[in-house]
Amino acid sequence: MEQVLSMACLKKPAAEITDTLREEYESIATPDLESEVSDSDGPECHSGPDLTEGQKTVLTDFEFSSEESSDEESEDRLSRWSKGDSYWSKYPPQSETITSSQSCPGPAPGSSVETPKDAWEHFMSENIIGAILQCTNLGGLRAALAKGKVWQKMTKEELKAFIGLSLLIGVERSCDVPIRELFMDPLQNPLYRATMSVGRYQDLHRFLQFDNKKTRVAREASDHMAAFRNVWDLFLINCRKRFIPRDSVTVGEQLVPFQGRCKFLQHVPSCPTKSGIKIFWTCDTEVPYAIDGVIYTGRQPGEETEENLAENTVLRLSNGLQQKGLNITMDSYFTSVPLAEKLFEKSLTMVGALRHKNPHVPPIMKPSKLRALHTSEFGFCGKVFMVFLRNVSLGSVCGSSLKNLTPVVK
């Protein structure tokens, strides 16, 4: 049975909680003047109220001096130390305040859309079309000269028509149909042969390029994705500037189906796709919009295997978030205590799930049959806190729900 913990980092100060506890201690430790005078009147009068078990625990946890410490309290303290050498207290410490930047979420100014064509041009902008056009004409010209033929220069309108036909093939689920059949068969969609000839479409498909092939070898020496890097970066710039995220975003991964030749192709037999290109995305939590993305290319040439891949990926994606105070929600693959602390330094917060085998999870939050159902345990360490909840089935907690139960968290 797999146990899941939720880990987060405080966003608002817990001063109100600590001040209340200190006031209780002062009322216990410092008797008023009347109690001092009445102390000599008779044995029935005493100097102050008796300490309850809960108050004793409060005094111990805030490191106030006490005459005796029970074995249960000592055992509880030991169970709150994790293998990562961190102590998870019962009570929240005072923490810094992160104020969210007041930006109007939604489409960025100047990103209004009236037609599907307007939406397309926001992301496939003129600089992307120009880069593809230049590289394709250059590659087609070299191939034609090598065979002693003449290359018919492709225009911008012709490139857009080619992209439109390629999209139409995908919409009609005709990827497995031969190209000549799509253009020549009278039973197929007449838009194909009305747009361009089958020979011209095959030529553009054969020589379509996204970079200068003559300089690709030098760039591939340090980047597996050199053939598509420039266009991908331009596309991500458009994604970032066309939308303002709300106060919370989500980080996840996607396996895009692909069967062609690729140095960083991922094979995942457990996924329905089986193989494809893995992309890590940052998306808005309310609107299905991709704000930023990182393609996983594996170990780059000349580099060692990257350690802490999940943590470094989230940090790269967070560089594109310009607003302060944003909360990032993620699953157990990305979540770690060091990541929460690093994001807090960038004025970002985090909510995620931790598996019980994580070295930063203390023993008191490990799965146990002795723990009653529907019970929870909180732990606070600096600006980070985690909670364990034993459910009926898995003993898990939904990390995103903590945002509504406690001060918004990291």
TrEMBL record:
Biased composition (Acidic residues): 33-42, 64-75
Ranges of biased composition (kind: Polar residues): 92-104
InterPro entries according to UniProt: PGBD
Domain PiggyBac transposable element-derived protein: start-end pairs: 115-390
Disordered as annotated region, ranges: 24-79, 92-114
Protein's UniProt name: Uncharacterized LOC107668826
Source organism (scientific name): Sinocyclocheilus anshuiensis
Lineage: Eukaryota, Metazoa, Chordata, Craniata, Vertebrata
Gene behind this protein: LOC107668826
